[in-house]
């Protein structure tokens, strides 16, 4: 099938301002990945389901789709990461698809990112060809493809406060010289798609925090607002403490084409709670939203939530925690919250192996108003949570305010209580989270096949409350087949 798919009720033109609107009809569309799907007989080749809003059809995107470069290969995991932004500023949203296990020539798992352009008749229906980002001397990312670079393992995209589109591409397996898995990321700026690569050894525009070391995996996670972006280094060693983790944060302001590094975060700093421990993985998940303080006349700050899923709480191993930081326009930071399941009035309780904070999603529903606990919310994935001994690693999702006391208005969702997919062992609920201005999407790609779905919950849902939107294989034009439907949603 070509990129047109089911007709998407073409709009006359692409209006600007509607988030995730691929066909420009003024209604939000949704992209749902199944990176483990079999395509043309190739296991884990991966595909992405696009559901056009307003009941205007669906589209299955893979490397077997006409107009999409490449071909399905075993283990590519096309759709492992997704992002949405308006890359060419035509008013139609464009879809960014990461395929970190793509082989480049004979080099296995070097990785690839594609940008598929929106148009009035739907994704890829216009005259603009798919843009590919991959390594190679004559390719947009330059350099040389190497085994296990994992380009596209993480992606993030948006528009700066100045209105410039940007795309971030993580390559956490990149080797720097002989330093294996040190990691890097690429900053793609403007409609010209100007690319610069950045490692922890880069000094153009200022010194990037940290030094490239083996297993740092810089670029594993990414998050951004119009003023700041953050890059996770969950494998960062702090002194002799391995995999303690760290985060670097930047401004979108460019100096000689490079974004300006502002600072680094890690639990070895006096201003940051906790102590660095082996396997904490500070930065294994990130979420960021714009922040406006009371009395401010513009939104120039950000709130950054950092997941620390390997955090031990006293003797409770790998219970997990989340730390929240306020990033000022001048680059200074303040820690504003430490959140775990032992925090006052927070539902549930911390247990070994919960991995609280393994995934994060956040929203600011009113970025041009004073930030409060009502309009800034954070969803925290807890994939190791179990409701009973019969359902180990069933998982769940904690929703807390990003401003004020975390337990003041928190909610809890788990399979069978809010999440319609019934409880089952090893569902790992909370590993698939996505934020939209109106809904929190929770995917249940693991566990029984019958339970695979993506559910949309209002951010103010009560504990155990029902979703208001559901995407499920076999319904609404989505094919009934799937392996890990809903692993990633945008």
From TrEMBL:
Sorted alphabetically, which PROSITE patterns does this protein's record hold? FG_GAP (PS51470)
User: Which Pfam family, giving just one, matches this sequence?
Assistant: FG-GAP
Q: Does the keyword Ligase apply?
A: no
Q: Which UniProt keywords apply?
A: Glycoprotein, Repeat, Signal
Q: Which top-level group of life is the source organism from?
A: Bacteria
Record InterPro entries: FG-GAP, Int_alpha_beta-p, Integrin_alpha_N
**Signal sequence interval, chain numbering:** none
* Name under which the protein is recorded: VCBS repeat-containing protein
Species of origin reads Streptomyces adustus
């Amino acid at each position: 099938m070509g990129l047109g798919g089911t007709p998407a009720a073409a709009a006359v033109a692409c209006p600007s301002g509607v988030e995730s609107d691929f066909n420009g009809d003024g209604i939000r569309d949704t992209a749902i990945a199944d990176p483990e799907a079999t395509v043309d007989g190739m296991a884990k080749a991966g595909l992405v389901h696009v559901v056009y809003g307003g009941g205007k059809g669906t589209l299955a995107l893979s490397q077997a789709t006409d107009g999409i470069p490449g071909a399905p290969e075993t283990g590519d995991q096309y759709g492992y990461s997704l992002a949405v932004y308006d890359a060419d500023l035509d008013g139609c949203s464009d879809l960014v698809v990461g395929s970190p296990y793509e082989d480049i020539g004979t080099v296995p798992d070097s990785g690839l990112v594609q940008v598929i352009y929106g148009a009035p008749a739907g994704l890829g229906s216009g005259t603009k060809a798919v843009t590919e980002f991959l390594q190679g001397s004559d390719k947009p990312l330059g350099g040389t493809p190497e085994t296990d670079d994992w380009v596209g393992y993480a992606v993030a995209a948006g528009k700066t406060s100045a209105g410039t589109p940007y795309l971030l591409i993580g390559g956490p397996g990149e080797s720097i010289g002989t330093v294996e898995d040190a990691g890097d990321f690429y900053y793609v700026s403007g409609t010209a798609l100007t690319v610069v690569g950045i490692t922890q050894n880069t000094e153009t525009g200022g010194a990037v925090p940290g030094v490239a070391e083996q297993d740092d995996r810089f670029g594993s996670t990414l998050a951004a607002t119009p003023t700041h972006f953050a890059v996770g280094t969950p494998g960062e060693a702090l002194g002799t403490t391995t995999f303690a983790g760290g985060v670097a944060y930047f401004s979108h302001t460019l100096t000689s084409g490079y974004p300006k590094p502002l600072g680094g975060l890690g639990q070895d700093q006096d201003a940051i709670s906790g102590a660095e421990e082996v396997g904490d993985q500070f930065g294994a998940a990130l979420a960021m939203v714009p922040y406006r303080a009371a009395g401010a006349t513009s939104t120039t700050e950000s709130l950054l939530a950092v997941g620390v899923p390997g955090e031990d709480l006293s003797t409770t191993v790998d219970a997990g925690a989340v730390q929240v930081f306020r990033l000022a326009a001048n680059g200074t930071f303040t820690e504003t919250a430490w959140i775990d399941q032992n925090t006052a009035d927070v539902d549930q309780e911390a247990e070994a192996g919960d991995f609280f904070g393994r995934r994060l999603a956040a929203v600011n529903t009113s970025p041009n108003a004073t930030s409060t606990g009502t309009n800034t919310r954070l969803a925290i994935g807890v994939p190791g949570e179990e409701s009973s001994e019969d359902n180990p690693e069933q998982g769940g999702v904690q929703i807390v305010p990003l401003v004020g006391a975390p337990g003041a208005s928190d909610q809890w969702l788990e399979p069978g209580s809010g999440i319609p997919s019934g409880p089952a062992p090893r569902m790992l609920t909370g590993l698939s989270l996505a934020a939209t201005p109106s809904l929190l999407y929770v995917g249940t790609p693991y566990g029984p096949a019958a339970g695979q779905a993506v559910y949309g919950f209002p951010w103010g849902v009560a504990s155990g409350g029902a979703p208001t939107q559901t995407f499920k294989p076999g319904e609404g034009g989505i094919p009934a087949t799937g392996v890990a439907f809903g692993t990633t949603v945008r």
